[in-house]
Amino acid sequence: MLQVPSTTAPTVHSLPSYLNADHLGPWGIFLKQVDRVEPYLGNLARWVETLKRPKRILVVDVPIHMDDGTVRHFEGYRVQHNTSRGPGKGGVRFHQDVTLSEVMALSAWMSIKNAAVNVPYGGAKGGIRVDPKTLSRGELERMTRRYTSEIGIIIGPNKDIPAPDVNTNEQIMAWMMDTYSMNQGSTATGVVTGKPVDLGGSLGRREATGRGVFTVGVEAAKHIGLEVSTARVAVQGFGNVGGVAGKLFAEAGARVVAVQDHGGTIYREAGLDVPNLLKHVQATGSVGGFEGAEVISNDKFWEVPCDILIPAALEQQITAANAGRIQARLVIEGANGPTTPEADDILHERNILVLPDVIANAGGVTVSYFEWVQDFSSFFWDEDEINARLVRIMKEAFSAVWQVAQDNKVSLRTATFIVACKRILHTRELRGLYP
Ligand code: GLU
Q1: pTM assigned to the model
Q2: Per-residue pLDDT tens over the stretch 327-359
Q3: CATH 3.40.50.720 fits 206-360, yes or no
Q4: Residues 186-218 pLDDT 10s
Q5: Is residue 125 annotated as a catalytic residue, yes or no?
Q6: Residue 362 CA: which ligand 1 atom is closest?
Q7: Which of 113, 117, 166, 209 to mutate to test the pocket of ligand 1 (most atoms within 8 A of CB)?
Q8: CATH code of the region 54-187
Q9: Pairs from 337-340 (Cβ < 8 Å, separation ≥ 24)
Q10: How far is it, in rounded angstroms, from Cα 157 to Cα 93?
């Protein structure tokens, strides 16, 4: 037998520096979440190291011609965290604060989310560090196409399927699909989801994340005896996710009392006129300047009297600095990673139920899965069928997670991680280690 001198024994638990838990930021938060779940994984815990290392990280240079004749370079990423259960799946975000740590964490949360709702995908995520508002439409298109070409070596309908995320939309998905298809020599609609409906997109995809937030939010409310039809709701971010969730809660009788976005914070105790607010946001780009509401400071948003709080903007919004002031009984995470671990503990101590991102906002990727299936079969379903299937998957996933939380006396976040990590590591074990 091969003798390995003790000084050179492989230290399988030491991580490369960029994966280190001490490393602050979103990836460090993910590692702490995995540590919390490890004791509940039984025999599967021996595979847990798999989750602490993304399978593949690609950093790309994205040079483009700017309209003024200069050349600018952007930094882009695509991270495939895990592909044990199927192709990588997750969005692409364009934001000036995008970092590798963030994209790594977001890709890992996609692995958890996809396993939690049991769609046959691994987890992936991409991004470009750019403020897209500073680009012309032509620059945005050139940047999207060059980025797609650069990550083209690892994406594909059976490998890794991008989708919209922060600041990316149907048009950007159309350019990504076209670029990939031109490079392949044939149209491959299944390479991205969240496409325009006329280009292989799915009905109901645009509203799916918000609809999922609403669906599981109603389920969670039932369990804590919170009546949705009389609840007061506060929403941060009023785009695709927060806007749709706010609309559905208002239609169910709830009063949307406060909304915050990059244009400021508005409040109305009697409830905002949500249909009109949506029109205003559509026309002006933000809630700023909306008539029929009081303007309050952004910090005051966190202490408005409400029953349900929906952070549906960016990560790390609920922090130790504001978690103690939150009045809601239920927090539904429409955004990815909006609550820091310290804030999570404070909310837990204050008996505020947190419905975590990895289940609450999984409606988007669930309908992405329907889109991908429809693209493969070139047979498209009607919206009622899509919504009915979405609601069924979300309710089933919620009830499994709720049960695990009760059985183990853990938070819904840890329970979702238990369900998801077991599924991922079970497939890991079945597949075995190659070679
Ligand atoms: N970006 C969305 C998310 O974070 C959707 C991802 C997808 O549809 O692949 O879940």
Answers
A1: 0.94
A2: 999 999 999 999 998 999 999 999 999 999 999
A3: yes
A4: 999 999 999 999 999 999 999 999 999 999 999
A5: yes
A6: 10
A7: 209
A8: 3.40.50.10860
A9: 337/26, 337/29, 337/105, 337/106, 337/109, 338/236, 338/311, 338/313, 338/314, 339/311, 340/29, 340/316
A10: 19
